[in-house]
Amino acid sequence: MSTPLETESTRRRLTPQQAEKIAKMTDAAVEIVLADGFDKLSVRDVAKRAGVAPATAYTYFSSKGHLVAEVFWRRLAVGVPEPDPSLSAFDRVAQVLHGVSMVVAGEGQLGGAVTVALLSDDPESQHLRLRIGGFIHDRLAAAVGDGVDDPQGLVDALQMLYAGGLVTAGMGHLSYEATSARLIAAAARLMGQS
Question: PROSITE patterns per the record (predicted)?
Fold first, then answer.
């Protein structure tokens, strides 16, 4: 059984064979970024490593930024489940913040590559940035719930915390683990837990 992530790309719906090509290309992109960094990444090299024609790779990815943004989107979509409704609002928020902040933890240069990719002006990367932002907003809104004063204001503040934290980690100023801990501590203050 396939998931929507396996059959839907940013640019088109995918057959199982196309989904397999996308998976090979995203895996190849991660391998190249980890070995050589974002600057050395190219869609052409990803195609070669994944065993697909460069023209095929460009059919799915407009740029290396788009490719890395897709890597992040895919990891986020499968790595950050719906908040556990049996937990308190704060524990649900902590669960989401930890999940989203650890998506690329421990993967060397990948975090910096994601930061660069998501901040690029490439239209496909911008589309994914909006999709990622919507996903995180929805997870945080579900975590906050309705049992707090000004739930939308709290979600907005948590999104700002998350965005700033991930840029800080992506720039290498803090590890993703330290960023996660600080995000959760800041959320505790916002939610009156400290």
Answer: HTH_TETR_1 (PS01081), HTH_TETR_2 (PS50977)
